Amino acid sequence: MLQRKQSLFLLLAALLCFATWFFPVASYDRGSEHFDFRTYGLYAADGTELLDVGVKVPFSILLTVLGVGLLVTIFLYKDRKRQQRFVRSTYLLLLGISVFLFITDNSMRSYLEQGGYDQPLGPLVLSPNSGLGIGLFGGALDQGR
């Protein structure tokens, strides 16, 4: 299973994708109210989902598919070219997800018109994942030569 050091990085990147289920993407404060934007919706401080603010893109499903794709990529070590294509496609998908997360975050922030804004661990989970992707992509190209 773990034929190369790259497999450890792929495993770490997959775990980071799955970790987005547990950390909010952004937190908003509007007066005395607190809201958390998670990959599966916008929630108040008491844990109730705000149904009038819908997430248009199913981020939780996309990030789960991305994590599963990264785990599958680990087992493609016998066919190096296919593994490189999978790594490329997963990180292009991650780039698209990150752009839509940014757009959704900005639209929720303007909807709530909050006084304060805080970015907790969600972006910190996605940022290393993007860095791992760039490193893996470069490493995959170097090993393929």
Write structural notes for this entry:
This protein is α+β, with helices and mostly antiparallel strands. It has a single domain, classed as Butyryl-CoA Dehydrogenase, subunit A, domain 3. Helices cover 61% and strands 12% of the residues. The chain has helices spanning 5-19, 59-74, 80-112, 121-144; strands spanning 26-30, 33-38, 41-44, 116-118. It has a 4-stranded antiparallel beta sheet with strand order 3-2-1-4. β2 and β3 form a beta hairpin. α1 runs antiparallel to α2, α1 (5-19) packs antiparallel against α4 and α3 (80-112) packs antiparallel against α4 (121-144). The chain is elongated and about 55 Å long. The two termini are 22 Å apart.
**Overall pLDDT metric:** 78
Total beta strands: 4
In one word, what is the shape?
Answer: elongated
Instruction: Calculate Rg over CA atoms.
Output: 17 Å
The CATH C-level name is: Mainly Alpha
Report the total helices.
4
Largest sheet: 4 strands, antiparallel
CATH architecture: Up-down Bundle
Secondary-structure class: alpha+beta
Strand order of the largest sheet: 3-2-1-4
Topology order in helix (H) and strand (E) letters: HEEEHHEH
- Termini, distance in Å? 22 Å
Report the sheet-strand fraction: 5-15%
